[in-house]
Amino acid sequence: MSPMIMENDVEVGESLPPATEHAVSVSLPTWRANVGYEEGEEWVISKMKTGYPRFFIHKIIQAFAAAIVEKHGKEGESAMLFPTHATASRCQEFFLRQAPDLNASQVRILDFLPAAEIARSEELEIISPKVSAVLFPQDRFSIAKMFWQHSGDGVSSRRAEYCYQLFKEDILVEASTLNQSARVCKGPKRYQKKTSIDLNAPVDLKNGNGEVQDPAQFVEERFGRNLSLTKAKNAKLAIRRRIAGSLTADVELTEAMTLDHDAARQRPIAGFSEDDVYLYPTGMSSIFNAHRNLLRAKGSHRAIVYGFPYIDTLKITEKFGPGSQFYGFGSSEELDDLEQRLQGGERFVALFTEFPGNPLLRSPDLERIRKLADQYDFCVVVDETIGNFINVNVLQYADVVVSSLTKVFSGDSNVMGGGLVLNTKAKSYPLLKRTWATDYEDNHWAEDSIFLERNSRDFVSRIDRIGTNAEAICDVLSAHPRVKQVNYPKTSPTRPFYEKCRNPNGGYGGLLSATFYTKQDAIAFFDNLDTVKGPSLGTNFTLSSPYVILAHYGELDWCREWGVEEDLIRFSVGLEETSKLVDTFKKALDCIPSAEGQ
Question: Coiled-coil ranges per the record (predicted)?
């Protein structure tokens, strides 16, 4: 696991963790910095070394796209990069729907593959490096960016880094020129070094001062560029077994492949195995592809989004397909309305919900939803990212379970990933299994899989500790008179619904949020809170953000209509020592001006 970060002075725009090339968060340490980012103010934007990957296109990806345009594009074009022709085609289709004045010659796809002789290299056969570029008029970049953000299907920064080097060495070539290339190579030079490490081999973890470093940090900093990519196949299998619950031991990859399944932890669904687990490049990709495949399998009906969701889940159902019915409060009254619609003959493809929701941490009544789904033949898709399967069993009520592996499953904030699980007991299972069999592509890049597997080995123990810390912070915030409301599954009015799904030894997760009586109170608390601040969640270090400002800045009035206050602060609690973390929050609370002084 990564070392703890407890500095409030990480500079604006620095990666989180600092100096991490493929970090998935970025420092926005003050309220003003968050607003400045949303407003596009130069003093913030100019300092951004990175950002959350679906919102901020990594600079390596930007450079690779620019190089493709320079070599193969036309004047006034830009490019967006995807892992396969199929994913690029979906971007092209979306683009042409959004811009009907354009045609396929103006929004075109170029595929880049290893030259035939080079593809016989053992390493390149295993990792299958390829990229498909969508080239389009530069002044329509916002459309391409919209697809990139909502679908989550763009290339990862590690894939781009590897393939960009191949491209520069004329090893990765545009498909129409394949027969013209004849160089033989084993991949980019950084992967050819004899020092390429075995992740299972013992290594000297001492730094120059003779101090023992954290193993994950050591690998990332010293050997992250020289990983043996041939381990990707086993890494992917280990990840899928962890998601299935059958692999919970914190062991090296070689040993993990020899262990019997953990029957006590495996998801309690008859016939279920890792064969029903699918990997995606991001959590949003798992949601996007769930929606897309359900439309293919069940017909073109509207979706239901129940409960106030993460922003892109709603956008996916609104912009891809026939639209959605939104129930933003996640209330029993809204389920009454849904039932009346169903009784009146309306039909839906699926209901999408989070368990619990982000950022209000409310839990939906999955039992009632399941009964309606069975009666009226729609699927239930549950995002378990916040709850996670160690704490809760939502698969019993779902047809499909999705999650972002970028978050607490990884913890180290240095790799993206998504998971999707099919329920073998669901009536829809045979249909969905056939649908995924004909459509699924494993686009999780090999090197990303290696990092994700290593990061997730101590997943179970981290979940327990994070939950303990989060409950302590919930107590501190709840006891303070200047805190208006604390949102946490344990204290939520919807706790009975959470308890129906909570595992015997499960906790309440590591995410909570709070609101204050005035904006000034919220700002005073946030600016004096000595944690790192930025987007994302599930990190091993505590991460705070004015979530609604970051996620919904252009629609604050709309959020207010659904009971989501713009001054809400979200906390993703980490692995720090509980007493120190409590003191950190208490000190920030002490900085709120007294009511008399305002």
Answer: none
